[in-house]
Amino acid sequence: MIRKLAKLSKDIFKKEIEKKSSRDGYGEGLVIAGEKDENVVVLCADLTESTRSYLFQDKFPKRFIQVGVAEQALATIASGMANYGKIPFISSYAVFSPGRNWEQIRTTICLNNVPVKIAGSHTGVNVGPDGASHQMLEDMALMRTLPNMIVVAPVDAIETKKAIIEAAKNEKPTYIRFSRNETPLLTTEESPFKIGRAESIWETKDPQVAIIACGPLVYEALLAAKELGKSKIETLVINCHTIKPLDEQVIIRAAKTTGAVITVEEHQITGGLGGAVSEVLARNFPVPMAFVGMDNSFGESGKPNELLTKYKMKSVDIARAVKRVIKLKTS
Amino acid sequence: MIVKNLEKKANEIRQDIIKMLATAGSGHTAGAVGMADVFTALYFKILTHDPKRPTWEKRDRLILSNGHICPVRYAAMAHAGYFPISELKTLRELGSRFQGHPERVRYSGFETTSGPLGCGLAQAAGIAYAARMDKSRFRTFCITSDGEHDSGNHWEAVMFAGKNKLSNLTCFVDRNYIQIDGDTEDVMPLESLKEKYEAFNWNVIEIDGHVMEEILNAVTKARTVSEEPTVIIANTTPGKGVSFMEDLPEWHGKVPNKEETERAIKELKENLKEIRKKKEDD
Fold it and tell me: Are the C-beta atoms of B115 and B109 separated by less than 8 Å?
């Protein structure tokens, strides 16, 4: 059952559930953060429209900085601005930032420990027709290993907006990933959200498996949980939007309750959410695990849904992983 | 401080660089020694700063991009009163503020963390841009090596500063023609550097980086330019003042042994006498 306290959309299991791209949440969040704090500035590397940075640019033209197709400059100029006292958000596709400028982020943002906010759009295969070169699937792995960095993968546009507003205030280097494609609005303005706190969103009396998911695929996890319920397989679903710092308490408790865990993410199954959860459980409470995500492969051109199907990230794949991990638990 | 005293100070700083590197047993000698005059001019004449308040809002910002020459910054700051000169001998030791490459989190007065090349000017440009947004009047200075001009990130920043007419930004290029693998013009030719900067809408001033008056005059000129950032191409001799180090790429990344240290200090002390004598003759 959907957990009431999660205050999710009432339309979750309806066909006509409202959809919105999480990049829209980025643009809206920037405007709100900009209104709250005049130190918020936005830098963009020639992708103002498609990252939705233009929403901020229209409202605060003097606080918007265009750097051109220069992602290394994007990170390092922002580092200087944060060093001075600004709160810079840097916008690009995740493949370019934090992809191309990783070392600059490491040295001038994380080792410098200045509060630059890295907004990576176009993550996952749901980028669609642009193909593999533009579908970022390694960003969480890249960012998660950096000391001082916070890593957030919001579930939808509303949660992205909340993450942006909170990131503007946290005084830390922060990476937030989001997507191009329109995805279901699972959460509402009332849904609880705090960076670093995983939210339990689906609960059952006697769960056999915990499904820990992040980003838009949380929706597929809920569909899977509902479908599995019909065949008496009870599960938990956790929206683990913050990959770092990981909410270890909630994850360990889920593992203790269920004895089996699967992770779901639109990212390589190594190094991202799956990696982070395995590390915590290996140290604290090892249980059988399965991983839904990209399995050591690049994507390709296609429609978002075709790609999620081909690369086995749909609810049926999650349900299969649940059954697989139950077998592991009982063997 | 009058020029004669600046030259004496630069000599003392050179001696401390040699000593601290010899004690540390590793580090970069030639570039640090070669930039002693520029750093002395900055900390004792040019910069608006207060050693007792390293985070004073109105201070000029000095961003060191080529972090490997940090011993010159550490020594100049110690002489300026930021820390005891005796602390310099902890260079590269566990727990020291004087890391092998500078870290802002160890001491805020270093302004940034540097070492990986090519990204200092962009940070300096970010600071200068943000300062102008707030109508802050301090100036931002950046020290770069010529070798790091191979890096794309540096030229991205050159374009950005030119586009935005960051006249509150001044970049020094330590033009000593050496980098780790040899002569800069063999590794990746930079000439004509002056024309390159001009093409990116920078004001360019070329100087002898060991002549105090030229360093001071160049910065004075930079202050009068209102529509362009200024680059001061400071022609320097790596290892300047220590005869057996001068112009030799091998001294980029090594430190003197005991005997070499003694020779270097002896030479520098003789130079100091020359400075005193020459000026008295004037």
Answer: no
pLDDT in tens, B39-74: 999 999 999 999 999 999 999 999 999 999 999 999
Distance CA A106, CA A65 (A): 22
Taking contacts as CB-CB distances below 8 angstroms, the residues of chain B near A80 are 63, 112, 122-130
Closest-CA residue of A relative to B119 is: A76
Q: CATH code at B214?
A: 3.40.50.970
C-alpha to C-alpha distances, B88 to A167, B15, B100, nearest whole angstrom: 39, 12, 12
Q: How far is B220 from A256, CA to CA, in rounded Å?
A: 69
Report ipTM for this prediction.
0.95
Torsion of CA B232, B235, B239, B240, to 10 degrees: -100
Rounded Cα–Cα distance for residues A293 and A291 (Å): 6
Backbone CA torsion sign across A46, A52, A53, A54: positive
Which residues of chain A lie closer than 8 angstroms to B54, CB-CB?
A: none
The radius of gyration computed from the CA coordinates of chain B, to the nearest angstrom, equals 18
- Spatial neighbors of A104 by CB under 8 A, at least 6 apart, are A72, A75, A76, A79, B116, B119, B153
Q: What is the pLDDT of residues A144-188, one digit of tens each?
A: 999 999 999 999 999 999 999 999 999 999 999 999 999 999 999
Which residue segment(s) compose the domain that B82 sits in? 2-281
**B280 pLDDT higher than 60:** no
HSE-CB for A166 with a 13 A CA cutoff: 20
Taking Cα atoms as reference points, which of B240, B146, B237 lies closest to residue B197?
Answer: B146
The answer to whether the CB of A174 falls within 8 A of the CB of A140 is: no
| Rounded CA separation B10/B33 (Å) | 9
| Domains of chain B: total | 1
Determine whether A234 is an active site residue.
Answer: no
Cβ-based burial of B95 (10 A; exposed 0-12, middle 13-18, buried ≥19): exposed
Instruction: Estimate the share of chain A in helix, then strand, then coil, as percent rounded to the nearest 5.
Output: 40, 20, 40
Question: Could you tell me the pTM of the whole model?
Answer: 0.96
Catalytic residue among A71, A166, A182, A220: A71
> To which residue do tokens 């109105």 refer?
B58
> In Å, how far is A146's CA from the nearest CA of chain B?
15
Query: Which of A72, A79, A103 minimises the CB distance to B126?
Result: A79
From chain B, pick out residues whose CB is under 8 angstroms from the CB of A83: 104, 111-112, 123, 126-127
Nearest to A112 among B113, B122, B152 (CB): B113
Four-point Cα dihedral B271, B81, B253, B219, nearest 10? -80
Strand partners, A289: A261
Q: Does B99 touch chain A (CB under 8 A)?
A: no
| B59-70: b (≥16 Cβ within 10 Å) or e | bbbbbbbbbbbb
Among B124, B153, B159, select the one facing A104 at the smallest CB separation.
B153
Cβ(B190)–Cβ(B42) below 8 Å: no
Amino acid at B234: A
